Amino acid sequence: MTSAPSPTAGPITVAVIGNPNTGKSTLFTALTGIHSRIGNYPGVTVEKKIAKFQFNDREIRLVDLPGTYSLSPRSLDEMVSVEVLLGRQAEVGKIDVVVCIADASNLERNLYLTSQILDLGLPTVLVLNMWDVAVSRGVTIEAEALSKKLGIRVVPCEAHRHRQIDDVKRAILSAAGQSVISPPRVFPPEFYEEGLRLQSILKGWGDPDVPFYVAERMLLDVGGQVETSFTARFPAQLPDELNCARERLKANGFRVPSAEAKARYAWVRETLTGVLTTPAERPATRSDRLDQWLTHRTWGLLAFAFIMFAVFQSISTFASPLMSYCEMGQQAVGEFVGSWMAPGPFRSLVVDGVIAGVGGILIFLPQICFLFLFIALLEDCGYMARAAFLMDKLMTKVGLSGKSFVPLMSSFACAIPGIMATRTIENRRDRMVTILVAPLMSCSARFPVYTLMIVAFIPNIKWLSGWISLHGILFFGMTFLGAAIAIPIAWLFKKTLFRGETPPFVMELPGYKWPSPHIVLNRVYDRARAFVARAGTLIFATSILIWAASYFPADHSRQYQIEDQIDQMRATVQSELSQQAELEAAQKALPESDAAERTVLDQKLADLQPRLEPLNKLIEEKNAISEHLLETSYLGRVGKTIEPVVKPLGWDWRIGVGVLASFPAREVIVSTLGTIYSLGGDVDESHTGLHHALQNSKWQDGRPVYTIPVALSIMVFFALCAQCVSTLMVIRRETNSWKWSLFTFAYMTALAYIGALATFQIGTWITAV
Amino acid sequence: MLVVPLEMMSTGEQGRVCNLDGSPELVVRLEEMGLREGASVRMVRSGSPCILAINDHRLSLRFDDCATVLVEVTR
Fold first, then answer.
1. How many domains in chain B?
2. For A287, which residue in chain B has the nearest alpha carbon?
3. φ/ψ of residue A122, rounded to 5
């Protein structure tokens, strides 16, 4: 027999909210598993994270809200949480249950937020997370008694150990059966009278569904987001009404805004009497002992420098072998596809455009994964906040605060999340300066450029049995070049465009913990996916455009004819070719001292030459034709036009075109060079890599194009330039004006040109000496 | 009993916050984060910015001229 579904059997929508660093994401994943849908709320940069799970045949929809200390919105971003909780966010809908997560060892402060949540009147579950930590510190909480006092379900939990997760689920389910709760009255009765008065006034003005909580916040938050957005709707009437209401409250001894904290903490204290016992003495924790060293003015800074160096050294050590596998894979695909298609425009598009272009950028995926892995690790273990603390001293010197450090540090991965993270900076001038210098931090898109140049042109000298290498040091240096330049630039901006006092600095230092592999890997996966998606869209499109510009308008029929002949010739001299390859391999394996054997091999190779001669002639002719075709193509013409501008930097027209084409995204330079050299015939059959093509690239008089000063000049240019459309768009969105995007582009391009010029000229001078 | 501005506490000293004064926006933010009248605090690392322990959480703070927090030093 089947029972009829009860009318309440639809999905339950649950909002999860709590203070920062209470283990909210850990609880979220413990409840729902790994699969969650991530998006953005319209018009703001708050991440919308929703996941579903089944419990006792009920579907539960979990909505994650950003960590916060209070529910008094000061910005549009903070307003999102309030709107979601009030059921006024169309994409989420009505909230059935609120799960408020609190750190059990810091209950007093966490209950401040809880008391605001209770004011919403929604069925609520209070999760006391990190219960084991509280117990180990001698804190005892009578959960039952607390539950009775608050009138809501209270569940002790250890989310990081996956303990009591089912208790949380059961509590959600039983809370969902409840309709509403009556909020505790933390304020004097006069306040509630004023609140109701304001609510009815707002209803009269044409907002019939305005909740009491909105009126409450409007009264309490002077200049807060609720007041701002409603004043915009009722500019004539609201300011007067609010002022009068606040004056009346003041006459009754209730001073806005200072009264709220007093009233709520008084309520917290009363609630916790007989519920919470804390040890008289709070002993130093493991975090404190670590902080003795890690936040020390000298040792802490040394440790910071060491950690940063170790991160970049290990990225270059671990990622390089993986990268060469990826490169081998890319070449194999190119050769395989090439061998199955007849010469013609279509083969050229696939092999030279798509595989050399998009594939050329995808091989950098391992490096980007490693970079994000380290950043996620540092963030999740709690070290990032210490770095901000240490850097505050330095940041105040340029007129910023330690708050600007975390956005700038995240910009080392990518300027886009970095610029979005500046929303935590309350001071507008500081926020603007941070946004404008954030793109100077060396983002992951610069990595492919540095890697290509360093691996191809800089000898890898190693010291201390391989622990320190020249490549590692150069990576480190290039990565911090932008940051070093950002210091005087930020100082200059703060002195000229955004003059003002150094803002105060308030930041919580979370306890150290072992990073959660789940959260860290998830973050790496998200970023890697974004990188691949970018390669598949923006870079794919640019690659095809670049290919077309460098393929047309020339007549390629003679080139294909020769390619066909080469293919046929290759078939006839197959055995000689493989013999040659074998001999060359044997020669390579030969020890330096074995001169006799070397002569024998050289002789054998020379004997093969007469039969290979016609093939080599054809290849040479093909290369000459390709070269000519490329130079007369649209791209070649543009390149020749701009050559005088880039020549002082030591660049030839190919590099100039590559830089022009990489306007949408820095890493495009790699794919553009891949396409240009592949079409130009420089990527020959036995050495298909771009490295090799660059090393062999020559000026017309036979000098190599790429010398060490040229490689450095390219790297410096990309370290300082603003070649990233997405960053410029984010700056436009965050500053609400194209003016600042243009300004960023202009000042960074000027900086990059001057930097590259100085590098090349000084580098050439040093090599000459 | 000795009342001093928070910045004047030396490492290891403990006390009770007896007054917060300054720009309302910053004061409200401090209160939300647990630094409120009546909170017992311990200076973990003095200086600018300093590290302060309130119960079991640690705040790093530098107010400059935006706020004055007076603390009754208990020991």
1. 1
2. B58
3. -85, 150
